[in-house]
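User: Some background: our group keeps a shared notebook of sequences we're curious about, and every so often someone picks one and asks for a predicted structure to add to the entry. Today it's my turn. The entry only has the sequence so far, pasted here. Could you supply the structure so I can complete it?
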Amino acid sequence: MTFPGGTSVTRLSVYSGACSDGLEGGTPHMHTASTEAYVVIGGSGALQTLDPRGFRETELSGGSTVWFTPGTIHRAINRGGLEVVVVMQNAGLPEAGDAVMTFPPEIVADAARYREAATLPSGAGAEEAVRHRRDLAVAGFLRLSESLADGDPGPLREFYDSAVALVRPRVAGWRRTWEDTVARQTRHTAEVLDALERGDGTHLGEATLLESPPEARWGMCGNLHTHDVAHPQVHSAPS
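Assistant: Of course. Here's the predicted structure to add to the notebook entry:
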């Protein structure tokens, strides 16, 4: 009974307030295993991205739909009330550390320093920590962008290598999460198709309505309303 496709869905209000370079927006980061999609539902802004082909800025407005694969460093820019529905591949993996922020290289290369810079305190001080974390990542993002503009992909390759080293210890746990969500749902769909091909509609009698109320929290790109799709409320159960 996972969310469709083993994905997750979040409503994102992109941060306002100027970053260290004067732009308003979120914390630059990338994902090592998951593709992410933005469906813009209000406001305006842009998506800045970095990959081995260089820097790109894509305009965002109501109705825009963009998605980006693992390794695409992305930064949401808010030009006025930017609201996004985020659809994330591999529900559970991004929440378990799949995202790596573009802190300066000396931090990303050191697991302890990265963890200290990335972790937000609970309660008082969280908002200031969010701003500090964002500015650190923007500084690293600008360095990577400048290197690519100068024709030097070395710093980006080094960032990728450091990111892989950071997440490598988590992969065994990620695999278990993936098996319990995406892989299990794929197998279930195959079973349903086999049953339909036999003319068997038994699974239709197990129809169920599920709901996951939103929970507010701080995110990398903005204020989030997340949905715990792994533990939904079941409104109707099979008889």
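Suggested note for the entry: The mean pLDDT is 93. The helical segments are 105-108, 111-118, 126-149, 154-167, 171-197.
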